[in-house]
Every structure is written in structure tokens, then in C-alpha cells.
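Please fill in the sequence for the structure shown.

STRUCTURE ENCODING:
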């Protein structure tokens, strides 16, 4: 991930990596450094790239940049509820704030329900990014 000297994500460096085959970019708040999530989302929108916000450590918190809640910036947000996270109950979630995202998440859920028990979270995330990136919005 392209980072600034303070280890926050660098929106312009992220956008510089976009190419014709780019499906998604992650907005991640790294090691306690808040990224410019709204700017990353705007760049993704401008380039037709799906923005996935990693709200693993920041969910329910508010941005110092604009006061918005974390988890609301990306087309999708991934949440982790394992030990040490904001809500340590186990498991995780993917949420969306776009209409097309609901059907993409439902399609992933249906596929998981049919998947063998040894499926992994990695396969879920890969499938979601693929579905989101291959949709008209991606």
C-alpha cells in the first residue's frame, strides 16, 4: 500500500496505481494513522474503482478529518469482531452503502451457504471484490 512518511495511506499514490484492470482499492487506517478515506473514495469514484474500507480497528469511531463514522466511506466496509477489536464477539461482516452492494452481498451469502465447510474468509473477500468490481458500479 502506498504510504506517506507518517504511515497513513497516500490517496494520490493509490490512484497512481489504478489501471484498466483495477477492480478495487482499500481505504485502510494503518497503525493508528487515519487515512483520508473521503479522498480515497472520491478518487475511486472518479476512476470507476470499487472502494473497500477496512474498518477493522476504527468501526464506530469518527474521523478527525470530517467527523464521519468509519465504515461509511467505502462502497463496502469490512469489519472484524475478533479478540482485540471494538466489538470482540468473533466473526466479521461486510456492509455496504450502495444499492447494488446489497445484491452483491446477498449473492456472496448464497454462495457461502452452498460452499463446503472448509471455505475461508479470504475466499469471501476475493469473491466480494470480484462481484463488486465486475458490477456496473465497479
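FILLED IN BY: designer on duty
SEQUENCE:
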Amino acid at each position: 500500500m502506498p504510504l506517506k512518511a507518517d504511515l497513513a495511506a497516500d490517496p494520490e499514490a493509490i490512484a497512481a496505481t489504478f489501471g484498466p484492470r483495477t477492480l478495487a482499492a482499500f481505504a485502510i487506517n494503518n497503525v493508528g494513522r487515519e487515512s483520508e478515506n473521503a479522498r480515497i473514495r472520491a478518487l475511486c469514484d472518479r476512476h470507476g474503482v470499487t472502494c473497500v474500507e477496512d474498518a477493522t480497528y476504527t468501526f464506530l469511531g469518527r474521523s478527525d478529518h470530517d467527523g464521519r463514522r468509519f465504515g461509511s466511506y467505502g462502497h463496502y466496509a469490512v469489519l472484524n469482531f475478533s479478540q482485540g477489536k471494538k466489538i470482540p464477539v468473533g466473526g466479521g461482516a461486510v456492509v455496504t452503502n450502495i444499492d447494488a452492494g446489497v445484491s452483491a452481498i446477498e449473492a456472496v451469502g448464497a454462495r457461502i451457504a452452498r460452499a463446503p465447510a472448509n471455505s475461508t474468509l479470504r475466499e469471501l473477500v476475493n469473491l466480494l471484490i470480484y462481484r463488486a468490481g465486475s458490477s456496473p458500479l465497479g
